[in-house]
């Protein structure tokens, strides 16, 4: 938050006006009680928060399925479990919708190469001739 000095000249307006600069920030910073460098390394090198939550969701759903009597029908827990199941379905649908196949990725890269460097594109196509296997 920063103070807006341009509003000081208006009558009745003092130095109290603040502007929340976080609205214009292109980055997201999540600060927990832990060490930020450890959090960053974990999410970059081990698993994102989404992946970690996904694992926990899988465990919760497996435990709920293994002991169906553990959650009373029409309880808050049963409602939460239903929401969790629906969230997992929705998440999977989004992932499938946004999944790009390797063929589509390669096709896009080839099209880009063909327009930016025709000679390199021609060499690549020749190297992938039917009588040659990739990598040889």
Description:
- The protein has 136 residues and is mainly α.
- It has a domain at 36-98.
- 56% of the residues lie in helices and 3% in strands.
- It is built from five helices and two strands, in the order ββααααα.
- It has helices at residues 36-45, 49-66, 76-98, 102-116, 118-127; strands spanning 2-3, 18-19.
- It has a two-stranded antiparallel sheet.
- α2 crosses α3 (76-98).
- The longest helix has 23 residues, at 76-98.
- The chain is elongated, with a radius of gyration of 27 Å.
- 0% of the residues are buried.
- The mean pLDDT is 80.
Mean pLDDT: 80
Secondary-structure element pattern, one letter each: EEHHHHH
Structural class: mainly alpha
Distance N to C terminus: 59 Å
Strand content: under 5%
Shape summary: elongated
Q: Strand order of the main beta sheet, please?
A: 1-2
Please give the number of β-strands.
2
Radius of gyration from CA coordinates: 27 Å
Largest sheet: 2 strands, antiparallel
Low-confidence stretches are none
**Annotation field: number of helices:** 5
Helix percent band: 55-70%
Distinctive features:
56% helix, elongated
Secondary structure layout plus pairing:
Blueprint: E1 2-3, E2 18-19, H1 36-45, H2 49-66, H3 76-98, H4 102-116, H5 118-127
Helix pairs in contact: 2-3, 4-5
